[in-house]
Amino acid sequence: MQGLVEEVRPGQLVSSTQGRDAGRYYLVISSLGDNFVLVTDGEFRGVEKPKKKNLKHLKIWPMVSEKMQDKLAAQSKLTNSEVSSYLADMLSSIQE
Question: Which spans in the chain are helix H?
Fold first, then answer.
């Protein structure tokens, strides 16, 4: 698990393992250092108010949304509907 911590990057798929949101999937918006990241799902946790999560309380998936990563790198505005669709695309590929 420790080896994955450095690998977390914007657009990465994560799921919560602790707290009231356990089992919920998110995409990482940014890393805060000190083992914390900001996450959003575009629905319950919008882009305008991302959730701060400790990496110890997240399962880190090896999938990254390239579209979201590109938007964040270009510093263009990211909408909640875009995040929701990126997340839905990734989750559908997991279930297949």
Answer: 2-5, 66-73, 80-95
